[in-house]
Specification:
heterodimer, A: 255 residues, mainly alpha, 11 helices, B: 351 residues, Serine Threonine Protein Phosphatase 5, Tetratricopeptide repeat, 2 domains, 3-stranded antiparallel beta sheet, 5% strand
Chain lengths: 255, 351
Amino acid sequence: MRTISAITISTFKEAVRDKVFYNLVIFSLIVLASSRILGLLSSGQEIKIVMDVGLGCISIFGLIISIFIGGNLVYKEIERGTIQTIIVKPIDRHEYIIGKYLGLLLIIFLNLIFMTIGFYVILKGISGTWNFSIIQSIFLIFVELMVISSIAIMFSTFLSPLLSILLTFCLFTMGHLSEDFLFIVEKMEGSFLKFVSKIIYYILPHLSNFNIKNEIVHGFSVSGDYIFSSSLYGVSYSFATIFLAIIIFRNRNFK
Amino acid sequence: MSRLKNIFLTGMIFIILGASVFLTSSIVKGKTWKDKGMMETIVLPDSEIMQRASLGYTNLAADLIWLRTIRYINIHNKGDKKYPELPRFFKLITDLDENFKDIYRVGGEALRELSKDPKSSISLLEKGRSIYPDDWKIAYESGRSYSLTNQWELATKSFEESLKMPEAPEWIAIHVAEGYYRQRDYMKSLYWWFRISSTTNNKEVAAMARSKVLYLDTLIPAIRIAESCKLFWEKYRRLPHDPEELVRAGFLDFVPEEPFNGRFVIDRKNFTIESTYISSLLLNCLEELSAKVRMYKDKHGNYPVSIDDLKNDEELGLNFPMHPYEGEYYIDHSSKRVMSTKDYLARIEIN
C-alpha cells in the first residue's frame, strides 16, 4: 500500500511539474470564462449556454488530460529505460500500474476541482444562485474519465503513445455510439456474427451512461439509484481494465 | 545560436499567424451578406449525423447551432430579409437538444414572422408541445401559427388549451373568443366574450368585450332570420318582406328581439339582414370619421392616404370608433369620405 501511494504521489508530482498540465488547466479556465461571452451573444439563453459550455469544457479538458497523459504514462518510462530501475526495486508490477493509475486520477481530480470552482464562480455571477445538482453531472464526468484513463493506461503498457492515444480516442467514440452499435447488431443476419458482435457490444464501455449533462442543464432530477448504478459500472469497468493492464504488464519483458 | 534560432522560429510563427488573421478578416469583409449567409449554411449537417458526431455533447452542439442561427438571422436581416434555411436550423437545434424549451417558442415565432413559413412554425411548435404539454407559451404560439393559415378550429383549440395551463395570462381568452367567431361558432364566441367582459380588470378590454357581446347578441338572431329566409326562399322562390312574414309562414316561432331596441330588417335587394339601430350607428361612425378626415386635411395640409393615418394621429386617433358590423373602414379618395366594407349583420346564403 505504501509503495502504491509512493508511485501515486510521484506520478502526480511529475505531471504537476509538467508545463503541459498547467497550460491545459489555464487554457480550460480561459475557455470556461469565454462561455460568458457566448452566453451574452445567445439572445436570452445565457444560463443554459454557460452551463452547457461549462460542463462540456470540464468533460473535454478532462478527456484530453486522461488520454494524453494516460497514453504516455507507462510507455514514457519504458522508452526512457527508467522502468528497469523501478522493476529491479522490490515493487510488484501490479503496484506500479495501480500507483500510476491512481496518480493520473489525482491529476484529473485536481483539474476537475479547479474547473468546477471556476465554473461555479461564473455561474453564480450570472444566475445569482448555487446550483448543486451540477455536482452530480461533474461526478459522473469523473467516473467517465476514470474509465477513459484506465483504457489509456492499459494501451500505454504495450503500445506507443501515438497509438495509445488514437486507440483510446477510438474507444471513447465507440463508447458513445454503443447504443447505435447494438441497433446494428440487432439487424445483423447470421447467428455467429451476431454473437461475436454482441460480445463486442458488452466489452465496449457504455459511456452514454455517464452523460447526464442534458438532464442537469434542463433542471430534471436524476435519481440517486441511477448515479449509483452508473458509478458502480464505471468503477467495475475501470478495475477490469486495470486488471487487464496488470496482466499485460506482468508478461512484458524489459530486458 | 540555438537561442537565436528559437527566437527566429517564434517570430516566424507570429508573423504567419498575423498574416492569416489579416487575410481572413479581409476576405470576410469583402464578402456580401449573401456570401456570408451561404457560409452559414454550407456546412449545416443532417441532425442524425450531428447527433452521433457530437459524442454526447449534443447540448453544446445545439448551443453552437443556435449562435449560428442568430448570426444567420442578423445577416439576412441586414440583407434580403429572406430566411430560407431557418426551418433547418431550428429542426437541427431541437433534434440535438429536444429540451431546449425557449427555442420552440422563439423558433415558432421567427418561422411565422420572419420566414413567413407558418407550416414549419406549426411543425416546430407541435414538436415542442409534445415535449412540454404544460407550457402555455408554446401552445399559444401554436394557436397563432394555426390562425395565420386559417385553421381556426386548431387555432382555437390551441388557445383554449393554452389558457388552461399554469401561469397562462387571461388575455388569451380574447384569442379563444375570436377563434370561435372565425369558426362561425357565434354562441361559443358570445360565451367567451361575456366571460371576458365579466372577469377582466382591464377597462379597455372590458369595453371591447361588451361591444362584442352586444354585436353577437344581435348577430345570432339575425343569423336565425337569415336561415329562415333561406327556407322561405326554397318554398316560395322569393324573400319575405319582413321577419313577421316568416312567423306567419311557420318558419319562425316568434320574431327575435333586437337587443338595442331597434328591429331587424330584411334587405331583399342585397339579400342581407340588418339592424336598424346598428345601421344608424354605422352611419354616425362614418359621419364622425369623415369629419376627422377633413380635420386631418386642415391639420396636415393633405388628406390621409389610409385609415391607419387617422388611427395613428395623436389627436384624431383618440376615441376611434369600432366598426359596429365587424367590418373595415376605408377612405374613398374621390369623395374624401370614410366608407365601410360591411353594412349588414348576416347574409342570406342562397345556392
